[in-house]
Every structure is written in C-alpha cells, then in structure tokens.
Amino acid sequence: MIKEVIILAGGFGTRLSNVVSDLPKCMAPINGKPFLDYQLDYLDVFGIERVILSVGYLHEKIIEHYGDHYKNFKLDYAIEKEPLGTGGGLKLAMKMAKGSLVYVLNGDTFYHIDYKKFLDIHRGMEAKLSIVLRELDDVKRYGSIERDESKRITGFWEKNQKSGKGFINGGVYIFNKRFFESQNLPDKFSLEKDFFEKIYKTEKIYGILCRQYFIDIGVPEDYKKAQDEFKDFEYF
Fold it and tell me: What's the pLDDT score for residue 72?
C-alpha cells in the first residue's frame, strides 16, 4: 500500500475570493471545519502515514493550524516562494516523497474513492500515471478527457472546447516518482497543460472511472453545496 500522499494546496482560490477571502482554498470552512480536515480524515481510513502539503498562498495559516501532525499522519510542507503552478508545486513536493509511488490529490476536491482498489488497478496496468475520472452530463466547465477501451487516455480537451456528457479529471492521481522526475520539467509549469497534454501520446497514462461521491469546492455554488452535503458526513 502507498503510505504517502501529496496534496496540491497552493492555489489562490480566485473564484472563491468573494466568499472566503482570507484563507487558502483548502482551509475554507465547511460547517466549522477546514475542508482539508475532511480529506485527511478520509485518507486516515486507508492507513496513510505521511502527507506532504504543497502550499504557497497564505501557507502560514495552514502550518499554524495543523503543525507537523494530524491524527496518525506526519505532515510536511513543500513551500513555494513564488507561484509555481500545479506542476511546479508538485515537482517541489515530489522531491520530498520517499516511496516509488505516491498518491496526489487536488486540495479543493473530495472524491470518495477506494484508494487500495485504485492502486491495484494502477499496478495491474503497469501504468506510469493513473488519473481518476469523473463522468458528468456536461463537461464544459471543466474540460474533458477521452480514453480507449483499454482505459488508456487518448485525448485532453480544454474548458469550453467540448460540451455534453463525458469524463473530467477528478483530481486524484498515482504517480510513478522516477518517471515524473525523469521528464526534466521546469520549475514552473501547469501539470495539466504542460505535462498531461504532452505525454499521453507516448506514455502509459490511464484514466480510471469512479462513480462515487465527488465535489469540487472551487466555485461558490459548490462550496455552498458542500455545507449541506457534509452536515451528515457519511462518506467513510
């Protein structure tokens, strides 16, 4: 079992700024608890031992709140001195990872997936990178991903390029650390645009569909939705 998780929590939260202006997105309160608490509580179910938080904007508030431990986790921080993008933030955090495989999560989404099953699928396919996919009736807001019958990813589409039913990136990954670090990536880049969209044609990247509960609190309407849905939190 993978024991390490990187959580990408360095974003500015621009779309939430009118609702949560003085906190990083991952600390946005959901019924009196930071959103990050819910992510960490769920990871605890799967025996995770170490979480590396990739942080930037207002990172002091995260560190002040959590310190170096949460429940059974050791917490470490990869701190951006300047905005590095999702890819740069991951690159910085990946240097701290000790295992050959690592889970990576977006800090503003919650996905009720079976992490052990996800790992079994990843290993069975001998994948270098696996992405959990969510199926939506309309992918326009998110952009979309296409895959073939073997689940190998065959295309990425930007926001507004496609609409209607399809698959989106659910913000949960398994990375092969050696593969990621072998790509000679710059210090500042977009994980989605500059990495995923460039390597899928030549590398074994798979999209694994999960139909369980999913929410992205990155926009005010879904942030409000989380307040209601997390009241009786039954997703463990």
Answer: 87
In this predicted model, what pLDDT tens digit does every residue of 193-223 receive, in sequence order? 999 999 999 999 999 999 999 999 888 888 9
Shortest CA distance to 108 belongs to which of 10, 31, 17, 21?
Answer: 10
| Contact yes or no for 11/106 (Cβ under 8 A) | no
> pLDDT at residue 163 above 90?
no
CA distance 59 to 38: 18
CA dihedral sign of residues 174, 180, 181, 185: negative
Q: How far is CA 96 from CA 4, 66, 78, 163, 173, in A?
A: 10, 19, 8, 39, 17
Measure Cα distances from 20 to 8, 23, 27, 219, 220 in Å: 18, 6, 9, 11, 9
Q: Measured between alpha carbons, how far is 188 from 56 in angstroms, rounded to an integer?
A: 13
pLDDT at 13 over 60: no
Average pLDDT over residues 29-47: 93
The CATH number for 4-131+169-188+214-229, chosen from 2.40.37.10, 3.40.50.2000, 3.90.550.10, 3.30.450.40, is: 3.90.550.10
